[in-house]
Fold:
Amino acid sequence: LLELTAATGVFRPHEIDTLREVLADYHQENSNLSHVSVSLEHDGVVVGFAYYAPDSMTDRSWYLYWIAVDPGLQGRGAGSTLLRHVENDIRARNGRLLWIETSSLPTYDPTRRFYSRQGYEQAAVLRDYYLEGDDMVVFRKRLDA
Ligand SMILES: CC(C)(COP(=O)(O)OP(=O)(O)OC[C@H]1O[C@@H](n2cnc3c(N)ncnc32)[C@H](O)[C@@H]1OP(=O)(O)O)[C@@H](O)C(=O)NCCC(=O)NCCS
Structure:
């Protein structure tokens, strides 16, 4: 998963380090705290994954922390399949809203287009959040509609 995520080329090295810690924590304890990590396989090979969790300080708001598809297979529906699975799973767990944070940088233009096409609305922009000139763009989708 780390290799696949790094190969997408959009994440900074420290973000890959963070993912390493997130996955280690997941296997150690967070999988018991309603965090979910799912991977999508094609012919026995992992082609993408998603990581999501509820925000315990809210009424049934969930966060999509990570989603990535093997760069050689992007644009062929794998991401949509993963996200649909995530949404259905959260609905089955009585989730109300799914929130996604991403970057405003041009390298994330296709990613933001992906969320819009999947029915997410842009809920907020936090200017200069990540770096000067790199805003946080927050998307959300109602799952109880
Ligand atoms: C964003 C991502 C998960 C989408 O998965 P995907 O399998 O490429 O997406 P799908 O094939 O299901 O959907 C295609 C749609 O997504 C968008 N898209 C995003 N990245 C794309 C790419 N590299 N190639 C083609 N379409 C892409 C397009 O809007 C496309 O719709 P269109 O062809 O009608 O314009 C994947 O491209 C990815 O891993 N990107 C890099 C990592 C990333 O940005 N993760 C999210 C961080 S917040």
